[in-house]
Amino acid sequence: MVLEKYILAVITTNPSKVPSGAAVFHCEDKKEMEIIAANLEAILDGIAHALTEELYVIVKH
Amino acid sequence: MSEYTYPILFGLAVGTLTRVYMLRTDYRQYPTYLHGKIIHVALGFIAAGLGTVAIPSIMEEQFTAVTFLTLAASQFREVRNMERNTLTELDSYELVSRGKTYIEGIAIAFESRNYLVIFTSLLCTLGYLLFNILGGLAAAIIAVIISKLLMTGGRLKDIVDVEYVEPRFDGAGLYVDNIYIMNIGLPERQEEVLRYGMGFILKPKNFNARSTIANLGQRQAILHDVSTALGVYRDSGTPALVPLAKRDLDDGRVGVFVLPQEKDIDKALKIIGAVPTLENAIRMPSERQTNGKGS
Questions:
Q1: Does residue A48 sit at the B interface (CB-CB below 8 Å)?
Q2: Does A53 contact B at CB distance below 8 Å?
């Protein structure tokens, strides 16, 4: 089976909102979250989408 | 030498020249190199041969000889397969892919051009044999004009109005006018998108056009043509920088978002207007009896 879209990683500053089942990166603040999201985007070849101010996901399209 | 030698040579020459004329390297940049061209000129020569001997064989009452034109049909269907396979293979390495509908359109064009060559050669030989070489030349000119008319398809500007709109962000959502394109999370990526991105709204002129530009293949063809002509701000490993075309479900307008290297609005408007309407994408719901004509 080929997955068309898949959440590769979750980056958040709010640990209570974190889902299970994906790689999660906890961050101290928004700035750190953006840096990690930018790096993960390049590494994983996915797109960083902002769900809320404190929750980013990296999705493979 | 028989009485048919010159008419046949004439038909052969005109047919092959027609194929060469139709084999221009244009903005689609295919085929670009000599090897690709040789294949098509050689096939055009074969097509011209098939077309040109049909008339002498009828005149000699060799009617069964005409049946080998069926051979041409299967031969040139192979051309379509060859083009389709090559372009599909190459498409995965394009920064902005052509899309299957566009490829199929190109492949069909390659096949049908060989039939146009057969038709041209047939007419030329007929003209030469019925009248003289001048008759043949007149037939050649008429056939080339018909080929040219049949070869050029419709352009997008015939069915839509194109308008430039600055793309904007609403939160993480990228919009062209009121059409949602995609979610881009990172602020630095958003800046890049705003710096290089251009938005266009395609407004269909009637109900038929609405269905045609809704076709995903047609939309991909627009993105590919703009990216080929103006360059694209994108690389492998930057999936966020992707040209996209999305549809407004309410009124069928299409929002096109592109990332050209050269941000020239007038040029881009002209390029979008000149994108071919792909024959596989054309829909004509108004042709159905239950629907009224036009919009």
A1: yes
A2: no
| B235 in contact with chain A, both atoms CB, cutoff 8 A | no
pLDDT number for residue B27: 62
Give tens-digit pLDDT for B191-201. Answer: 999 999 999 99
Question: Is A44 domain-assigned?
Answer: yes
HEC letters along chain B: CCCCHHHHHHHHHHHHHHHHHHCCCCCCCCCCCHHHHHHHHHHHHHHHHHHHHHHHHHHCCCHHHHHHHHHHHHHHHHHHHHHHHHHHHHHCCCCCCCCHHHHHHHHHHHHHHHHHHHHHHHHHHHHHHHCCHHHHHHHHHHHHHHHHHHHCCCEHHHCEEEEEECCEEECCEEEECCEEEEECCCHHHHHHHHHHCEEEEEEECCHHHHHHHHCHHHHHHHHHHHHHHHCCCCCCCCCCCCCEEEECCCCCCEEEEECCCCCCHHHHHHHHHCCECCCCCCCCHHHCCCCCCCC
Going from N- to C-terminal start, the domains of chain B cover: 5-151, 156-287
Average pLDDT, chain B: 88
Cα dihedral B69→B72→B74→B78 (10° resolution): -170
Residue A50 included in any domain: yes
**Total domains in the fold of chain A:** 1
Size of interface A-B (CB pairs under 8 A): 40
What range defines the domain where residue A37 resides? 6-17+28-60
| Domain contains A51 | yes
Answer yes or no: is A22 within a domain.
no
ipTM of the complex as predicted: 0.81
pLDDT tens digit string along B100-144?
A: 999 998 888 888 888 999 999 999 999 999 988 899 999 999 998
Work out the minimum CA distance from B97 to partner chain A, whole angstroms: 15
